[in-house]
């Protein structure tokens, strides 16, 4: 302990000695160039006032910090307390059957931290003891089976980074822009690394009977969420997942077990999964008849719209993150497609008259979020910022006009139109729709 303290004292003293003269410091700052606050006129004042700015030694270098037993499970810095899930009052009739939103405007890269993944549940989050949890597979199978968590973890495992999007993402804006920010227009999406066993592995164990074409997945929550899923998809890439971003799934996301159905609407990704029944036709449960269908302009309802088509949004700048004066910025955003890989993302600054291709940050994974970025020198004028995603199947993200022509405005789900942020000369950003 004493040694540590003297080491800190020594480092502080060394810093003091290294403190450059004001002139020398200004030269370094000028050579560094870009960072305004660094070379600015504030230095003299900062020095005089003893502020925690270079070349002063900040307070937090003068004492020891908490040690290795202080946080057995780490949490973000207290300065990041704005980076949280948020809900919207008028969308929250009851806490237990509602939704909150991922703060996508504050995130970088493609992985959503587990504690920030949007939550959608119809009956609250059940508290499940994994020792008492079971998964049953029955119906049109040769051998009905019941698995403990330990049984499931023993099977060969797979990991995959994938997005999950509620089909209601953006669904409040069919008739016009109304949400106050990026978190609310596009935050019903998350992207994590999921680990589990392929459903095909478990189905092979049970033996799929001839003629089986669908399965029913049921959750162990108060809503007993139940959805029909075609067997082809189940045998293709569905995962019965027990881990999320390296640790066991968070309770909100389906602890201890959930279905992950890559690229398909959030609702079929049944959380807290307890039962899988095989059959020869869909069950037409509540969540695939009265909900999660798309009311078309001719009054008919489209059923089983499983795939989340290509979508994208600029996450900076956005209403929550305005521009701070003229100068150089990097436009950043996310794109995704439930059909496979994102091939290109175009960015427009003039509401869609002209487009430039953005840079796609590696890795570009199938059915995962992709980060795009484009340098931008803002001259202070108005701008209409948009992004447009293209996927490997050739699908191009539609304009809101194009989408309305096909879908009308009575739908809720599957609105993946090109989104517009209006940049005002004062740097503030508005959510708008343009004709
Ligand atoms: N058992 C169960 N599974 C469920 C739900 C639910 O309420 N109960 N909600 C569904 C819906 S509508 C969506 S969009 C996703 C949300 O997943 P998330 O909470 O991990 O974001 O879970 C789906 N799986
Ligand atoms: Mo959903």
How would you sum up this structure, described in words?
The protein is an alpha+beta fold and 435 residues long. It has a domain at 5-61. It is 17% helix and 27% strand. It has helices at 2-18, 22-32, 36-39, 42-49, 149-154, 182-186, 199-206, 231-236, 400-407, and strands spanning 98-99, 120-121, 135-139, 145-147, 158-165, 189-198, 214-219, 226-230, 239-244, 247-248, 258-260, 273-279, 294-295, 301-302, 311-316, 327-336, 342-348, 356-357, 359-360, 370-378, 383-391, 420-423, 429-432. Ligand MTE binds at residues 117-122, 164, 166, 190, 219, 221, 223, 225, 252-253, 266-267, 269-272. The ligand Nc1nc2c(c(=O)[nH]1)N[C@H]1C(S)=C(S)[C@@H](COP(=O)(O)O)O[C@H]1N2 binds next to strand 2.
Can you give keywords for this protein?
five-stranded antiparallel sheet, 9 helices, 435 residues, five-stranded mixed sheet, single chain, binds ligand MTE, binds molybdenum atom
């Amino acid at each position: 302990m004493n040694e540590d303290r003297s080491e800190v004292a020594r480092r502080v003293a060394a810093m003091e000695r290294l403190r450059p003269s004001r002139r020398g410091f200004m030269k370094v700052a000028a050579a560094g160039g870009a960072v305004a606050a660094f070379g600015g006129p504030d230095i003299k004042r900062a020095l005089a006032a003893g502020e925690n700015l270079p070349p002063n030694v900040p307070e937090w270098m003068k004492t020891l910090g908490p040690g290795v037993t202080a946080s057995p499970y780490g949490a973000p810095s207290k300065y990041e307390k704005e980076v949280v899930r948020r809900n919207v009052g008028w969308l929250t009739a009851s806490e237990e059957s509602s939704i909150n939103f991922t703060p996508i405007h504050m995130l970088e890269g493609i992985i959503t931290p587990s504690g920030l993944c949007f939550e959608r549940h119809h009956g609250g989050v059940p508290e499940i003891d994994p020792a008492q949890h079971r998964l049953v597979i029955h119906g049109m199978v040769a051998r009905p089976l019941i698995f403990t968590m330990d049984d499931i973890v023993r099977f060969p495992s797979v990991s995959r980074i994938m997005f999950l999007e509620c089909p209601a993402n953006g669904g409040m804006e069919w008739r016009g822009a109304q949400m106050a920010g990026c978190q609310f227009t596009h935050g019903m999406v998350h992207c994590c690394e999921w680990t589990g066993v392929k459903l095909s592995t478990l189905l092979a164990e049970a033996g799929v009977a001839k003629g089986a074409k669908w399965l029913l997945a049921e959750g162990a929550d108060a809503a007993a969420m139940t959805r029909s899923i075609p067997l082809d998809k189940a045998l293709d890439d569905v995962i019965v997942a027990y881990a999320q971003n390296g640790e066991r799934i968070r309770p909100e996301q389906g602890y201890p077990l959930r279905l992950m159905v890559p690229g398909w609407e959030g609702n079929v990704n049944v959380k807290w999964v307890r039962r899988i029944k095989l059959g020869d036709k869909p069950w037409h449960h509540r969540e695939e008849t009265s909900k999660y269908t798309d009311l078309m302009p001719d009054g008919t309802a489209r059923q089983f719209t499983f795939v989340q088509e290509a979508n994208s949004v600029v996450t900076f700048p956005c209403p929550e993150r305005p521009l701070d004066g003229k100068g150089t910025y990097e436009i950043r955003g996310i794109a995704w497609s439930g059909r496979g890989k994102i091939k290109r993302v175009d960015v427009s600054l003039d509401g869609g008259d002209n487009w430039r291709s953005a840079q796609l940050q590696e890795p570009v994974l199938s059915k995962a979020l992709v980060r795009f970025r484009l340098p931008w020198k803002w001259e202070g004028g108005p701008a209409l910022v948009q992004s447009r995603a293209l996927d490997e199947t050739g699908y191009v993200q539609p304009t809101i006009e194009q989408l309305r022509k096909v879908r009308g405005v009575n739908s809720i789900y599957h609105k993946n139109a090109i989104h517009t942020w209006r940049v005002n000369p004062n740097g503030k950003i508005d959510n708008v729709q343009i004709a």
